[in-house]
């Protein structure tokens, strides 16, 4: 994760052991539907979206950016910068964004961008797997496979995994399951074009002053969790922001 504070988790800057302890607790909380304070990866959370000027649309979304859901009217766009190995990104996905993806389908355009953090050794390989799948028109399927199977490749017990060989074997399995040409997938994972795409996402994240993951923008304004203390609070706050934009 990155370097901002997320009212519902804490950022990295914490020791690996502390973060991984949070991972275990967070996953348990998501599973049982419980409530917990948590930190975002690698930085403070949100930032004050209301007080900061909006980030230019061309920074947040490129013509080749990946879209999970698209609204025909294009009035509201939500952009998330994420790290596939980030425990907070997985927690957000499980408790918040996967539900928003379904509930706001056709109403909100949901764009995802890469921001793999150096503290997560498998974040880059996972991003490459997602981008390689995109070259065969299966980005959305790989995005879901990576987060849905997070426990199988991203962590090793209570530790963040650094086993790239195991992770790549898992990614190839997902590629087969979602109907990709696996040989082409393996070639694309290692291609310069895929890495260039990830590097562009990271450059845009820095331009947008992203310092932690997940970081979400709604119509250019960074989502601020405020005093939210639970996943339910964050979900409610984000939905309120989306609904306000939809009502304009």
UniProtKB/TrEMBL annotation:
Superkingdom to which the source organism belongs: Bacteria
Domain Thioredoxin residue range list: 46-247
UniProt keyword Oxidoreductase, yes or no: yes
KW Glycoprotein (keyword) present: no
Residue stretches spanning the membrane: 18-38
Sorted UniProt keywords: Disulfide bond, Membrane, Oxidoreductase, Redox-active center, Signal, Transmembrane, Transmembrane helix
Similarity field: Belongs to the thioredoxin family. DsbA subfamily.
This protein's name: Thioredoxin domain-containing protein
